[in-house]
Amino acid sequence: MDYLRTAVLGIDDASCLLLETASKIPHFQIQAVADKDTKLAEKIAAEYHCTAYDDYRQLIIQNQFDCLLVAAGMHNCDEYIRMAMKKKCNILKLSPPARNFEEAAEFVRLAENENVKFAVANPGRFSAGFTALHQFIQQGGIEQIFLITAVCAAGNQNFAPWETDPRLSGGGVLLRNSYQLIDQLMCNFEIPQHVYCLTTNQATDKKQRLYLTEDIAVVTLKFSDTCFGSLLASRQTGIGTEKQIIKVYGKDKILTAGNKQFSVCNGMGQICEQYNYDENSSDCTKKVLENFALGILMPDKNRICSSAGENLRNMALIESAYLSARTGMPEEPARILRMAQVEPTIIWPAGNR
User: Fold this and answer.
1) pTM of the prediction?
2) What is the pLDDT of residues 41-61, one digit of tens each?
């Protein structure tokens, strides 16, 4: 076939963008959408002339799909993702891929056993700003990197109640809002030797903070004896706009990158090169979907970018950060990664190398 029989699991703003974009790509044939909200599922299904489901289990049992686009929270659909893979259905999961490293590793092993694709939607790998950063580093444009800083401001967002529960969500601003930024760090640099993390939230009662996901995270990264990094992440409803920025400090250059911008400064901070890119979320989403579809339809000619296996690096760093926040000690992501007994290889889009 030259198209994929496709269903969407979970409906929110992100999945609506995914669905709208997929409907315009000939590689996808949207056959069903599912959400716990019956009226919402029926409304969206009517727009795309497909079948609505409010029961995820029935969606999987009653159909044979080629791929499943997953936006639902993992606490609502983990068993159905496993069920779909056992029916030889490929999975594209909006980030994060799982609630923790162990769950992510389990999905990777199951996908390998069932010979299906499990990929994670990381639009940053296709964005012009972060692609320019990747190319500049890979081409040796900066020497002797000694400091890397990343800032994630989640911006003015409304959070579902389950996102504040660690058991259901797996984590807060670090896992759910900073994932794309962490993916960029792990794509461009070696996995840190040690990670030290502090987290907190805005709950007024100290005991209550133990049962809520974090709103603020400060992570220190040791890449080597001569190269360190930091990640500052925060979220608060009603405050500011979303921002994700990486700065890389080298011997005589400073690089700054975001989704839509890239600049090169000299050691004094004076701008030498500056680029602003006119692209929107749907542009990057389209590239993610096309890469995923072609990786399934024509795997000999196309490799899927951002497989779940390579995303284990991201999950190992996040797992180390949360463990460090609990123990008060630095942790080693490589030790956690070894537990999965895989050697993930980072794949960037072929056209952007």
Assistant:
1) 0.93
2) 999 999 999 999 999 999 999
Closest CA to 254 of 232, 270, 275, 230: 270
The one-letter amino acid code at 241 reads T
Interval 110-130: pLDDT, tens: 999 999 999 999 999 999 999
Retrieve residue 30's tokens.
């949207």
Q: Tell which CATH classification among 3.30.360.10, 3.40.1110.10, 3.40.50.12710, 3.10.560.10 matches the domain 126-278+312-352.
A: 3.30.360.10
Main-chain dihedrals φ then ψ at residue 331, nearest 5 degrees: -125, 160
pLDDT, tens digit, 9 for 90 and up, residues 4-44: 999 999 998 888 999 999 999 999 999 999 999 999 999 99
**According to the CATH classification, is domain 4-123+283-297 in 3.40.30.10?**
no
Listed in order, strand segments (DSSP E) in the chain are 4-9, 28-34, 51-53, 67-70, 90-94, 118-121, 147-153, 194-200, 216-224, 227-234, 243-249, 253-258, 261-266, 271-276
Domain segments of the chain as ranges: 4-123+283-297, 126-278+312-352
Tokens representing 188? 């461009």
Task: Give the C-alpha separation, 353 to 346, whole Å.
Answer: 12
